[in-house]
């Protein structure tokens, strides 16, 4: 008999036979119960006097409610607690044989800069008491976290990043998520990984979440649509453009306005949002302004470009001199600004600072080509690195710090508002010049095709299969050292690309991006 191990007890030796582990099914791991989970704070209204909370149960719960009291040092606060019935309870069908029920309460008439304890449940089955602190109604200093895409292998690889970020900045006033929290919006096991990865953090620190393209992706064979839990689970203040009130909005937090847009141009009218953004920025009494959306104005993923988005939003952002634009999508890190005569200086004046970041494990090749082509300058960049960002605001000074998943400082700068209205930027000690990007590769092009198909930029599965088959053939010749044949087959790929473009199965932007990548490889081999 084959033995895997022996358990040794004094006087006794017990042989243990080999056993094959059995995978525990997702629908048993993640099925809801009457006990509340996925507790999540946000704001639907004034950040100083209100606080929204959502949570999940199974569909047996018929009387969801929350209790709240001002925090005390001792355990007697529950005697002063108020009970509020859930305003919303919505059943959400998922990709497993169970139904999630999402409940929501908005606590109102709270005192600014005050710590409260609350719990959610049904009167019998309660969560633990959780704590939050309302925003100040003065222009006090505060800090917040900015996280890029989580998206893939969330349970395994992303959870350590959000936990490291919170450990590093446990007094964060809120967490800003720049989209693609998951890979497929209807995959409940992925949402489970995202909520469980942060755990009770989401129940104590409010979040502002923006919509990425993968919130529209599907694991089931159903048409692309926004994740069913979005509008109930994620809190928006109902001040966005008509028809997008639960997807676009702004929050005023002390002396900062935070604006979230939906950059999925195939699902949300970007010109409508640009017009709305112009109005929101025109009537902005705050000293600091942050705009967040998923797809970058200047891409740092090799071969990527968001021209339609840039054409619509960049003029508005420039006109109003937005301070920070925080983005994701490109699975790399880049931070910079529109190019000026002070490029390369460690102290300079500028308008808007743009950042792209990634928190999860999915990685692309880094490139600054799209920045340079559109008159922008990269101050810091990275690839194959999971990141989180701490942002501190104190009066006329904003400090930005980007850390790796190990808590090592990668990039930092301080922005100061000068009396004449200019913004002076000082690069910090953590500042690192970006490394030269890797040369293009067949593997990178194949990943690009996969992503373009997911995003709907390649409209036909068969077209994507033709691309992948052709690229695999090219890769074979490259690996065997048959450079001439690799070039010949890559030219064949370009002809295929042109033919499929003529049938309008891919966008013009996709054609140009893949064609440019093919030309780079041909030049590299030549």
From TrEMBL:
UniProt keyword annotations, A-Z: Signal
Region Disordered, annotated ranges: 422-441
Residue ranges with Acidic residues bias: 429-441
Calcineurin-like phosphoesterase domain residues: 152-333
A Pfam short name: FIMAH
Occurrences of domain Purple acid phosphatase N-terminal (ranges): 36-134
Protein name from the UniProt record: Metallophosphoesterase
Domain spans labelled FIMAH: 442-523
Key word Transcription regulation present: no
GO function terms (MF aspect): acid phosphatase activity; metal ion binding
Annotated coiled-coil segments of the chain: none
Gene3D superfamilies per UniProt: 3.60.21.10, Purple acid phosphatase-like, N-terminal (2.60.40.380)
């Amino acid at each position: 008999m084959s033995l895997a191990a022996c358990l040794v007890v004094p006087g006794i030796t017990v042989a243990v036979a080999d056993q094959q582990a059995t995978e525990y099914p997702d629908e048993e791991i993640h099925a809801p119960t009457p006990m509340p989970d996925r507790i999540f704070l946000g704001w639907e209204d004034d950040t100083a006097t209100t606080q929204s909370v959502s949570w999940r149960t199974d569909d047996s719960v018929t009387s969801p409610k929350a209790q709240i009291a001002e925090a005390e040092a001792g355990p007697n606060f529950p005697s002063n607690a108020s009970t509020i019935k859930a305003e919303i309870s919505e059943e959400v069908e998922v990709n497993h044989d169970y139904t999630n029920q999402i409940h929501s309460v908005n606590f109102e008439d709270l005192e600014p800069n005050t710590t409260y304890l609350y719990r959610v449940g049904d009167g019998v089955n309660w969560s633990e008491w959780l704590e939050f602190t309302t925003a100040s109604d003065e222009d006090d200093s505060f800090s917040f976290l900015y996280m890029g895409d989580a998206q893939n292998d969330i349970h395994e690889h992303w959870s350590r990043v959000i936990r490291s970020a919170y450990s590093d900045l446990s007094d964060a006033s809120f967490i800003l998520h720049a989209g693609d929290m998951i890979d497929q919006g209807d995959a409940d096991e992925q949402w489970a990984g995202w909520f469980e990865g942060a755990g009770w953090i989401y129940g104590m620190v409010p979040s502002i979440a923006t919509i990425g393209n993968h919130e529209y992706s599907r694991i089931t064979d159903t048409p692309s649509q926004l994740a069913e839990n979005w509008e109930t689970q994620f809190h928006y203040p109902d001040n966005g453009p008509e028809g997008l009130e639960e997807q676009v909005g702004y929050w005023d937090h002390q002396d900062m306005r935070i604006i979230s847009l939906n950059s999925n141009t195939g699902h949300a009218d970007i010109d409508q949002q640009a017009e709305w953004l112009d109005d929101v920025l025109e009537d902005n009494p705050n000293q600091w302004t942050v705009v967040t959306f998923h797809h970058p104005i200047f891409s740092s993923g090799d071969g990527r470009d968001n021209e339609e988005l840039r054409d619509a939003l960049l003029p508005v952002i420039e006109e109003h001199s937005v301070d920070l634009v925080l983005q994701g999508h490109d699975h790399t890190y880049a931070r910079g600004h529109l190019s000026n005569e002070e490029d390369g200086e460690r102290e300079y004046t500028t308008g808007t600072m743009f950042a792209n970041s990634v928190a999860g494990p999915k990685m692309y090749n880094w490139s600054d080509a799209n920045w340079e082509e559109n008159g922008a300058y990269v101050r810091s960049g990275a690839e194959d690195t999971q990141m989180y960002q701490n942002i501190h605001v104190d009066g006329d000074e904003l400090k930005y710090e980007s850390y790796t998943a190990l808590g090592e400082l990668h990039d930092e700068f301080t922005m100061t508002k000068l009396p004449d209205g200019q913004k002076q930027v000082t690069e910090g000690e953590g500042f690192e010049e970006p490394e030269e990007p890797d040369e293009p590769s067949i593997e990178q092009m194949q990943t690009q095709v996969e992503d373009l198909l997911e995003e709907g930029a390649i409209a036909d599965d068969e077209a994507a299969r033709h691309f992948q088959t052709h690229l695999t053939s090219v890769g074979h010749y490259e690996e065997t050292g048959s450079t001439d044949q690799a070039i010949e087959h890559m030219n064949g790929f370009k002809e295929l690309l042109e033919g499929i473009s003529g049938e309008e199965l891919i966008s013009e932007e996709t054609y140009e991006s893949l064609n440019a990548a093919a030309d780079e490889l041909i030049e590299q081999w030549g």
